[in-house]
Records
---
Amino acid sequence: MKSIRSLWFVFFALFAFVLAACGSGGSPAPGTNSQPPLVSAAAATGVTVDAATLNGNVNPNGNATTVWFEWGTSSTLASYTATASQSIGSGAASLAITANLSGLIQNTTYYYRVCANSSADQPKSSIVSFTTGTPAAAPTVQTFAPSGVTTSAATLNGGVNPNGLVTTAWFEWGTSATLASYTATANQSIGSGVASVSITANLIGLASSTTYYYRACGSSSAGTIRGSITLLITQTPGIPPSVQTLGATGITTTTATLNATVNPNSLATLAFFEWGTSPTLATFTTTTAQSF
């Protein structure tokens, strides 16, 4: 009987050892879930010329988990930079994670992935990418030839392309060949398109026979650009027509032919006769005008 009791004691001791090793019926002990975290990368947001926010999702699957991003310019992330680790607990729901990057290179494609670490595994997501922006350009400005030039007035002409940014335009003009000193016309709002917009400004009260200089200008958040300097020369006042009255010919009792010479002096001219019975032509009749 003593040997039988000893055998049963050994049997129960072995059974208790197996139960302890299996964790009471084979269930994993708390905090040792064998399921690894579930990781996925999401599209980057807030992408500018030198910054971006990385996004992803991680489900800890019941184990205490830390997460981070690996990022760089290698499409395979053979070399990368890791963001700071973030602890997201040991829940069983997917959590959104983010990391802000700054100091990036403009117009460059970057790659990144989500990484996680728990007692079950260290999974990494698939690699996704984003491309930083290109800085917006300042306006493109052109100065065109003037039009409508007279002895005292002219119309200034130009073209300004906003290059996608809200832009104002104007002219600077004066008698200085370098426009070291100038007068500016009123600002014109030309929107934020990507095509050249025609701009004009009318000047009046100019001096005759005078050379003026001007340039078109445009300004946006990307900078102020001044176009090339163009000149305009106001006209010289025209010389009046030269007129000489000649003697009448073909005189009869009821008819006569009036004669004269007219020099238009390079200006479009209308000529006519004034005639009557008053020696001073205080009152007179006008003949039909003739164009020269």
Note: The chain has one helix and 23 strands.
---
Amino acid sequence: MYLPEKIINMQNTQLPQIRLGLCGESACGKTHSSLTFPNPIIIDADNGLTAYAGQDIKVIPLYNPQWVTEYGFPRKDKTKQPNRKDALLKWLNEEGIKLEKDQTLILDSMTAIEEFFGDAWTPRYTKNNQIDEFAFWEELIEFFKEIHILIKSFNCHVIITYHEMKQRDKITGALLEKIQPLMQGKYVTRVKTNYTDFFRCITVKSKDKPGHVDYFWQVKSNEYFDCKTRLKFPDDVQYVKPSFEIFKQYENKLINSSESSNKFLEQITSSRTNLPI
């Protein structure tokens, strides 16, 4: 049997790259659960890490104009933000590509990154000297594509967080359509194709600790949200406690080991189906 040169054998791959998308409201545990992954580095676009002050967490402060300026993208107009869009692409191309298999890159959040694109975008004009209304959306899609092409080439695991969008009836409060990542344009309909897994983050009041909340991942689709995963969960489990350990299923040795399978099941903390939407 002929085998081309330069092929790889998945038999020798212990744990392939995980690209996890996390969608949820503010303070629902997206960053908290991301930090269960090994050796995280956070590209902070939201400036929402105040709860982690004083902790040993490595951060790229993309939200910070001074950092962006010092990285090589100074303000051309003092009334505007520096070009954080191109600063991000430069960092991914020059630094992200160097991250290793036992590391995790967290981009928090893509919703903010979309706003950075808008800040840096230069209007295009038609032959009639009118603003090309389609150019913005076309270039935004290409920008999202470029980011996802880059992260797919990385050796490290990648987590990208999204705020969520809900359309509710103003009178009844009922959802009018499924919850989606908060993004503009048509790219939202295919964003999940770029990820190995895509979950929704949810919080509920803790039963054991008054005044605290418990964090969950919604790992199975329902009428409110479409998840994506190839992980195997018991039939009655729709929500699990966030943990990098559940992704060990993707490692062949764990999938085929009954002992490891039992350890995985211990990670599941809830079979509730009535968590908030």
Note: Residues 248 and 254 are 7 Å apart (CA to CA).
